[in-house]
Each structure stands twice: as structure tokens, then as C-alpha cells.
Amino acid sequence: MSNFHDDSTTASDPLAIDLSESKLRELQPELYGWRAWLISFSWGNQRLGARAITAMLREHLSFGDSRAALVVQIAPHLIVAAYTDEQDAVLLLQFPDFLTDQYALHVGSRLLTVNTYGEAKRVAADIVEGPACTHRYANLYPLIAEFLSDDLNLISQRKQSIVEAEWNRAAQFAQARLAAKQVVVRDGRPLYSHLPAKAIVLSSSSAH
Predict the structure, then answer these.
(1) One digit per residue, pLDDT tens: the chain, 208 residues?
(2) What is the three-state SS of the chain?
(3) Domains of the chain: which residue ranges?
(4) Which residues sit opposite 112 in a β-bridge?
(5) Please, what CATH class does the domain formed by 65-206 belong to?
(6) Fewer CB atoms near the end CB (10 Å): N or C, the chain?
């Protein structure tokens, strides 16, 4: 039973990977130490503190839907495209540059996104729905599995099971987003990747 997610829906491809707190600390050090006392995270009608945020992220990785993700840029910034089959779309996510060397990433590196979803009256402004969109959800909350979990064997096995058509679709959608006049990129860190309002806007000339 979930404490932070809706049990009336289930993911088509949950992976049940565990959260690595050492990796989370790298990406979100403000969840630890004295700064953790200052954290307040809006989650539905709740305000979550640092400990509850960590529990929510652990639950997300365990119950969320696992799908294709691709590195689409490493300079001047690391950008990953996370695919969602629910919206038949990708979100572009920017991450700290140190991850490029840490994970030996290059353009085309295959990663895994674990997605959960939110409902609202309007679709998030940075989501461009594809022709196979189910129209069930308004927002996407992607977490990149490799950056948050040590269960690398499970992650690798799941990536190998994703059909080539999904990887190709993610790449095509990502290239279309990168070719736009303004390239809108979310902060990919786990405290922010559900927030379209925090999107980073890059000029198209810096996005290739």
C-alpha cells in the first residue's frame, strides 16, 4: 500500500528498485544535515519534510512506471530526454554536469526513467502530447533511475526489455524539442522534476 501515491492505478512496468540515499545526497544535499530542517515540499494537500520526501521518492522508484530515457546533450549542459507512454512525449531534463563523467555519459547513452503522474485541468505547459497520448494525466514526474538507485542489474535488464521502437520514438521526440526556437528544459533533480514552472529556457543555438 502506498503512502504518497494513488493505489487505484498501477504502472504497466514497475521495477521495484530501491533508493540510494548516497546518490540522493549528491543530487539534493539540502535534504540532509541542518538544511533538512528548512525543507518544505508541496505534495497534493500535504507539506512534506525531508524525511517524508525521501520516503516518497523511495515509493516512487518502487511503484512508478519504467520507460526509456536518453542523453541528448552533454555540452554546455547535461540534458536527458525522459519518455512517457501515457503522454507519448518526452520531457527534457537538465542535470548537474558532474554526472557526465561520473556515469561516462555521451549523447545517445541509454538511461531509464521512472515516471509517476498527476491530474489537473490543464496539461503542463512543457509537455507536447504525441498522437498516442492517453489523455489521462496532466503532468509527469520523471526520476532517472541510474542517478538515484544502486540496483543497476535490474535497471540494465529493464532497459534491455524496452523495444527498439520506444528508444527511437524517444529520440525523435527529443530532437524535435531540441530543434524548437526555444528549448524548454526542466530541472531534472528529484525535488524539481515535477515542476514545469521551474523550467529552464535555453536559446536554440546553445541546445545542440
Answers:
(1) 677 566 666 667 788 899 999 999 999 999 999 998 989 888 888 899 999 999 999 999 999 999 999 999 999 999 999 999 999 999 999 999 999 999 999 999 999 999 999 888 899 999 999 999 999 999 999 999 999 999 999 999 999 999 999 999 999 999 999 998 888 999 999 999 999 865 666 654 444 4
(2) CCCCCCCCCCCCCCCCCCCCHHHHHHHCHHHCHHHHHHCCEEECCEEECHHHHHHHHHHHHHHCEEEEEEEEECCCCEEEEEEECCCCEEEEEEECCHHHHHCCCCCCCEEEEEEEEECCCCCCCCCCCCCCCCCCCCEEEEEEHHHCCCCHHHHHHHHHHCCHHHHHHHHHHHHHHHCCCEEEEEECCCCCCCCHHHCEEEEHHHCC
(3) 65-206
(4) 68
(5) mainly beta
(6) N
For 30, the grid coordinates are 539540502
Set of cell numbers at residue 5: 501515491
Instruction: Look up residue 169 and give its three cell numbers.
Output: 520514438
